[in-house]
Amino acid sequence: MWLCALACLLPAITVAQDDNKVGPPRLPKGKVLQTISRSEYVDNDKLDARTKIGNRNMPDGLTLICHLYAEAEQGGPAHHSQESCALPEGAKLDTSFRQQAFPTPCSGGGATTNLTVADVPQGFYISCDGGYYWAVLAPLHILALEFDNNGSVLQWGISVGDLYCGPGGGTHGGCNVKLDIYAKIKH
What we know:
With 187 residues, the chain is mainly β. It is 2% helix and 46% strand.
């Protein structure tokens, strides 16, 4: 199953010719971006159960903003995709928050990753999981998606370098990769 790349996840950013304002994606309040075979905004309790990452001990005060999932069928090509998601419009990141460790490694089954905790931008927390041969790869970047007339950022987002999984050949099975992205939002 193939997921959309960055351009598919976030609606196209357009520039109006008369006032040069950028029109960014808008995240509905209280919703989480979930990608499986398509991208959609859902309530946190409506995430697809088969794609969820198990319960983890995480710091208090985090808000789930993205639940990303990809898979590849046995004998098929590997899955590669860049992904991104937006914070709710007007959300302010608590950049004093820094992820200290990954709850589980961000690769498995023999795949490796270049992603380290230092690659996770301040104000964000990630949790990874997968099956067979999988990895979440750097870089992770904060995106400024919307600005006011004074140049202040109104909406932030985050991009992920690559969600990867390699399926087995023959009877070795398919693969999947899961990534949950949380933000520490100032209230």
